[in-house]
Amino acid sequence: MANAADDRSYSGLLGAFPYAFRRSGSLLFKLYAAVGGLLAAGVAVIFALALVVLIADTAAASGGTISLMRAFFVVVALLVVGPLVAPVLFVARRHRRGSGDRDRGADATYDRRLAVSGFAFAASVYVALIVSTPPAQQVGTDGTGGALLEALYALPAPVGLLLPVVAALAIYAVHLRSR
Fold first, then answer.
1. In the chain, how long is the greatest CA-to-CA distance?
2. Where are the alpha helices (DSSP H) in the chain?
3. How many Cβ atoms are within 10 Å of 23's Cβ, its own excluded?
4. Band of residue 31 on the pLDDT scale cut at 50, 70, 90
5. Cα–Cα distances in Å, from 55 out to 37, 69, 80, 138?
6. Membrane spanning segments where (predicted)?
7. What is the pLDDT of residues 4-26, one digit of tens each?
8. Pick from 71, 42, 39: which is nearest to 54 by CA?
């Protein structure tokens, strides 16, 4: 077992995941820490590879618009990855500060609520991707779940943006309300 000094601190984003995983008393949160970490890493890799392709495609072009487009791409990546890691960072911070050590039941409830909000954000990003799928790339709506898929395709594109924004704000609201 690690000594008390190691258990009370962590260094940076990557250290927060194992720290929060170890310290949490909620199995649901532990599942989110594992799944959310993998999702965040996967999304970060996808955005990094897509940025490389974007830079390669626009390398010959010059001008401020191209630079702005690249910067906007990075901002969008942060807006997707940030809420995926936020529940883990909130839980790690709470445990590091010791505010949850006095009442383990309330601590596990806080962890569980943030896990649910994190899973809801991940689901909202998935639904947003379905809603924003261009008509040329939409798959057939036959079979199981076809009616739901057809309904999601019929939604206006701004709804696809609104869902993750609301879910990200919900993560912060859950954090504030559960403190």
1. 59
2. 4-7, 12-23, 27-57, 64-97, 104-131, 146-154, 157-178
3. 21
4. very high
5. 27, 10, 20, 27
6. 31-56, 68-92, 113-131, 151-174
7. 555 557 788 889 999 999 999 99
8. 71
